[in-house]
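User: Can you write out an input/output pair for a complex, sequences first and structure second?

Assistant: Here is one pair. Inputs:
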Amino acid sequence: MSTLELPTATVVKKKRPRVSAGRVAAWALMIAFLALSLFPFLWMLRTAFSTTRSLPSNPSSLLPVDFTWGAFKRVLGLGTQAQAIAEGGSGASVNFWLYLRNSVLYAGTVTIGQVFFCSMAAYAFARLRWPGREAVFSIFLTALLVPPIFTSLPNFILIKNLGLLNTLPGMVLPTFFMTPFAIFFLRQFFLGISREIEESASLDGAGPWRTFFRIILPMSTAPVTTLAILTFIATWNDYFWPLLVGNAENTRVLTVALGVFRSQTPSGSPDWAGLMAATLIAAAPVLILFFAFARKIIDSIGYSGVK
Amino acid sequence: MVSSDVATSTPRKTRKLQAKGDRRAGGRSELPTALVFIAPALLGFVIFYLVPTIRGFYFSMTQYNILGTPKWIGFDNFTRIPKDPLFWNALWVTLEYVLLNIGFQTIIAIVLAVLMQRLTQSTVLRGMLLLPWLISNVIAAMVWFWLLDYQIGLVNAFLEWTGMSRIAFFGNEVWAIPTIAFVNVWRHMGYTALLVFAGLQTIPKYVYEAASVDGSTEWSSFWRMTIPLLRPVLAMILVITVTGSFQVFDTVAVTTRGGPVNVTRVLQFYIYQKGFAEGQFGYASALSVVLFLILAVVAALQLRLLRAGESDLA
């Protein structure tokens, strides 16, 4: 017995000092990366609560310079024009609420359509038996290889010829029905559901529609929610496509509006506090979603990217 | 396929069960139902993926300024591309960006993933590393544009405090592309680290235990086991990140807009300018065909790497 225990004991003894020596350095490195990840968010907050005119006087203070809610007020159109100009804003009215509404409509509509239609298609690919199933699925997947810019140009022409430029349908349509990733993602989950459940349902006389809506979908709320969150975040952050087809004021989303806002500010004295307040508000919905569903999102990443 | 038998027995069992289910149904096809289920996705696929891909090739053979009608000119656009100095400039700028971005991002991601694996399983910590990935490219660009501002940005205040001279990160010809690459490394490092981390989880613990009993140091275990066993996952991650990296646009569009003097005019921004600002839609399409081909070649090379390693882990 003692001969068996001896080697393990020495291994543990040998390992511990070596590991704890490296552990300090490892933690230091980890903390450095954490600081790098988080610090810009802190700086956004600090700047958003500062007065733009006072920023040059104290560029490295960690706390807001001349604390004020002014930046948020002028971004949301709550303050007066005089007050905005006094604090270093441009004084021009920003239709922030409109852009916020557009972003919600754009990301929300795409998410609802894409998740619903892709879960139907994924079910057909995972569960129904039909000739050509694998072939069609692999053709769908090859669409992943086509770079978005390549289809964006002809899609722009199509949307333009349909007279849908600067309309919600024009922005939403290309990703409303499917993305190859969404189908792939859900198909993997549907494949994992036990067939016996479906078979007992079909013995009870349930057709594929009822099986899908009453059994498969309710059993898959976790992956469907995850996909919905990922789709919403990706669409919310989308810039290129909304820039191409929805650049007009009435359909402008937040990302595009921020780009315009930044290029309109005179390069001499940009309204940094206003800009940072705007970015914080633009990022808020996604950050709130993340805090609510952090574990789902984190767990899905290893899955969606690798497997 | 054969090698997966070694891994575990559960997948085999499920596969057998599925095969049994298939057989039980016999030859009964559910084609009509399936057609209804895939109809919307198929519609979307044909209209917004398949047809545009074909049309993209067609437009590349035309002279077209969006307003008129496309005029067929054969390969004229493609013979023009090699003679276009701005194309070559855009290609080199993009390559420089991709190398810097992918190089740093991949190394940092591997380091972070190994640190996470060794130090903590904390979801909170992983969540914090993921935060930059959640905000849009536009916001990430904006925040760093402010932090790196020449006059009153924090980083330059710090540089001056340490006695170094200020750097016009976005306005200097040498610094502009590395700066843009840095912004995107910052946004993606945590995300890529989580992908690598997921790959690390697939390496069984006993491999390390056996190695440590045999007296292998952590350093040599990392190079001799972790990296080789991670190779298929790394190849997959690289296919995704490199393809994405070649299509950099947002960061350039909201910060430098191609400047100073063309040094940040990456391919996708050049395509955008040609097609939408200069009205040369046919030529822009030809450029996007070239970008497509470059991506296809790069991805094919990488997938080959992946296939070579597939038997290690699958």
